[in-house]
């Protein structure tokens, strides 16, 4: 099976991604090809050419190996047992550097905590940054967090993931009660100066979903201008030069403001 790149055409970059086989199905080899090459094959087929593809692949599965999420936090000054999580994932596809998926998400979430520390701000509740492992080929960092923190999921006030790139921030996606949504919308108005004040339906992320679903925890995602995301995501073009430091700094500011205010609300978000 040859899979056409899911991004727009333009860089002739093949688009890597996960593939899962059903236990009772044959393991048919699958490879990604660039949109330009897929289009060419299509043209050949359309004009009746006999298409022959020679495919040399080295891809294979290695046995599982130990890995870990990276976790740090600023303990809350009044209710340290109540937790706000901000997060991104550490792993990526090795065709590129994973700068935007999801190195940038890791940087803007740990920057959020660094900004609070630098400004000497300690919110009422704990703000925890989690850099997830194994998002791309199994999600086991998110599953392990859910299992290991099962006893304190009820104390999680909100979980956020940044996994859509760190381009110009537009605001946040939010999943939770109507009451909490209104509160979050109010907080987002603080970010109108950088144009990051939208709150759209459907927040979350692959890594936080196991915990937010089981603990019924309000879930958020950082929403950005994603028009360039799929041009580079999961391809050899996902390198640091594609990241604009100003846009990234605005993403960090947006995450910092939202996380800080939610963690510092007099009454818990619910
Ligand atoms: Zn990702």
Give the key terms:
alpha/beta, 7-stranded mixed sheet, 270 residues, globular, binds zinc ion
How would you portray this structure in words?
With 270 residues, the protein is α/β, with parallel strands linked by helices. It contains seven helices and nine strands. It has helices at 35-46, 99-118, 140-148, 178-188, 209-215, 229-232, 245-264, and strands at residues 2-4, 31-33, 70-74, 79-89, 125-132, 156-161, 169-175, 198-201, 219-224. The strands form two sheets. A seven-stranded mixed sheet has the order 3-5-4-6-9-7-8. Helix 2 packs across helix 7 (245-264) and helix 3 runs parallel beside helix 5. The longest helix has 20 residues, at 99-118. 41% of the residues are buried. The mean pLDDT is 95. The structure holds zinc ion (ZN).
> Whole-number average pLDDT?
95
User: What are the distinct ligands in this entry?
Assistant: zinc ion
Tell me the structural class: alpha/beta
Compute the number of helices.
7
SSE layout and pairing:
Elements lengths: L1 E3 L26 E3 L1 H12 L23 E5 L4 E11 L9 H20 L6 E8 L7 H9 L7 E6 L7 E7 L2 H11 L9 E4 L7 H7 L3 E6 L4 H4 L12 H20 L6
Parallel strand pairs: 1-2, 4-5, 4-6, 6-9, 7-8
Antiparallel strand pairs: 3-5, 7-9
Helix pairs in contact: 2-7, 3-5
Outline of the structure:
This protein has 270 residues and is an alpha/beta fold. Helix content is 31%, strand content 20%.
């Amino acid at each position: 099976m040859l899979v056409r790149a899911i991004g727009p055409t333009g860089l002739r970059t093949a688009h890597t991604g996960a593939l899962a086989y059903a236990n009772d199905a044959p393991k048919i080899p699958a490879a990604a090809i660039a949109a330009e090459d897929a289009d060419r094959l299509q043209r050949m087929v359309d004009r009746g050419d006999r298409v022959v593809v020679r495919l040399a692949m080295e891809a294979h599965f290695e046995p599982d190996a130990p890995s870990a999420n990276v976790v740090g936090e600023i303990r809350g000054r009044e209710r340290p047992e109540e937790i706000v999580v901000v997060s991104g994932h550490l792993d990526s596809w090795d065709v590129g550097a994973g700068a935007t998926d999801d190195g940038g998400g890791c940087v803007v979430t740990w920057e959020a905590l660094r900004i609070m520390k630098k400004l000497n701000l300690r919110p009422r509740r704990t703000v925890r940054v989690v850099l997830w492992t194994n998002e791309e080929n199994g999600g086991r960092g998110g599953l392990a967090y859910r299992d290991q923190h099962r006893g304190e999921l009820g104390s999680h006030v909100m979980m956020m993931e940044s996994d859509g790139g760190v381009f110009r921030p537009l605001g946040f996606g939010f999943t939770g009660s109507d009451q909490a949504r209104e509160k979050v919308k109010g907080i987002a108005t603080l970010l109108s100066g950088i144009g990051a004040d939208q709150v759209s339906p459907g927040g979350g992320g692959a890594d936080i979903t196991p915990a937010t679903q089981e603990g019924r925890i309000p879930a958020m995602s950082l929403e950005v201008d994603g028009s360039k995301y799929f041009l580079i995501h999961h391809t050899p073009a996902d390198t640091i030069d594609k990241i604009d430091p100003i846009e990234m700094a605005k993403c960090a500011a947006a995450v910092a403001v939202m996380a800080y205010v939610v963690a510092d609300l007099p009454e818990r978000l619910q």
